[in-house]
Design goal:
Elements: H1 2-25, E1 29-39, H2 46-58, E2 64-66, H3 69-78, H4 89-99, E3 103-112, E4 115-124, E5 130-138, H5 143-165, H6 172-183, E6 191-199, H7 208-219, E7 224-225, E8 237-251, E9 254-267, E10 273-285, H8 288-307
Parallel strand pairs: 1-2, 1-3, 6-7, 6-8
Antiparallel strand pairs: 3-4, 4-5, 8-9, 9-10
Helix pairs in contact: 2-5, 6-8, 7-8
């Protein structure tokens, strides 16, 4: 009996270790492909073709998870970005927040005499670092062959220099320290948190985003009222919102899940909206439910760091003591 139990235990440990090695080895980077520019009348209508071909080549790369093109178009329209591929650093950050992409791939195509150049820019949405890759061919060369070669260069650049493009993962302690610095000694209001959460096609086990926001708030000095049991204590600020996670794609044994969280802070007394924020996050795991939970937690942690400082009240300045009146 003991031998059988030991064998089962060893089998479980091997599976866990194998899963850990798999997750560590197969890092997946969420990326979005922006339209490629055309430079010159000789390459008219080349831009959309290069964009489509780049998508077709990178979508099969197991290290890259591409943002859905319809979702990307909605974000670009919402941010009022023209589809030229000219992305400023602050725009890249915002695109990353709303799509979950950590990398943006864009570029241009141009003809010089009898040569055709296709240039790609790889932009880190967290670091705003820009790296490049390019290929050169003749005007009579097949465009799909040039773009396939360029996509290979893009993939190799991401694999070799990912540390420059993607920020180091933030730990809970790092985020908490940065939040404490932003809050300073300001007065923390009493808050109540109510976030509706669901995972498309799956049963939601527990409130991942609500728990994460409550954790950051309580550890930062806020008094948090339980939404179900706090009827006897009045909240000063209500944090209400919705979180949705859904399957994105599969990379071998790994499953990529996208989560979107929207949250607003409302003054309980007046009903005035103090702040609104939203975040999209993409996480990868061996389990769809675990990836969905991790994505909602990541989105909640990002929002907490930006939204909580907006609802605190600065302490009144102490007036200097004057001389006693005679």
């Amino acid at each position: 009996m003991r031998g059988r139990s030991l064998l089962i235990l060893l089998s479980v440990l091997c599976l866990l270790l194998a899963g850990g090695r798999l997750a560590a080895a197969e890092v997946v980077y969420p990326a979005a492909i922006l339209p490629f520019q055309e430079r010159g009348a000789d390459v008219k209508n080349f831009g959309p073709k290069v964009t489509d071909l780049m998508f077709a080549n990178l979508v099969v790369d197991p290290r890259i998870s591409l943002v859905d093109r319809e979702d990307l178009e909605k974000v670009l329209k919402e941010l009022e970005l023209n589809l030229s591929g000219l992305v400023k650093p602050e725009e890249a950050v915002r695109v990353g927040q709303l799509t979950g992409a950590k990398l943006l791939v864009t570029g241009s195509v141009l003809q010089v005499d009898s040569s055709l150049y296709v240039v790609a820019k790889i932009i880190g949405t967290e670091t705003t670092r820009v790296l490049g890759a390019s290929v050169k061919g003749g005007v009579n060369d097949e465009l799909d062959g040039l773009v396939e070669k360029l996509a290979g260069e893009v993939s190799r650049t991401i694999a070799a220099r990912c540390d420059e493009l993607v920020a180091r993962p933030k730990t809970h302690e790092d985020r908490l320290a940065a939040l404490a610095k932003s809050l300073g000694k300001a007065k923390r209001p009493v808050v109540k948190i109510d976030i509706k959460e669901r995972h498309v096609g799956q049963i939601t086990i527990d409130p991942a985003a609500e728990t994460e926001i409550a954790l950051f708030a309580s550890e930062s000095g806020f008094e948090v009222i339980d939404a179900d049991k706090g009827a006897g204590r009045k909240a000063e600020v209500l944090l209400a919102g919705e979180g949705v996670s859904e399957f994105a794609t599969r990379h071998g044994n790994l499953i990529s899940v996208k989560a979107r969280l929207e949250l607003k802070a409302v003054d309980a007394a007046s009903g005035r909206v103090l702040a609104i924020d939203r975040q999209t996050a993409v996480q990868v795991d061996l389990s769809e439910q675990l990836a969905g939970k991790a994505a909602l937690q990541e989105a909640a942690a990002e929002i907490a760091s930006r939204l909580l400082p907006k609802i605190v009240q600065p302490l009144p300045e102490k007036k200097p003591r004057g001389r006693a009146e005679r």
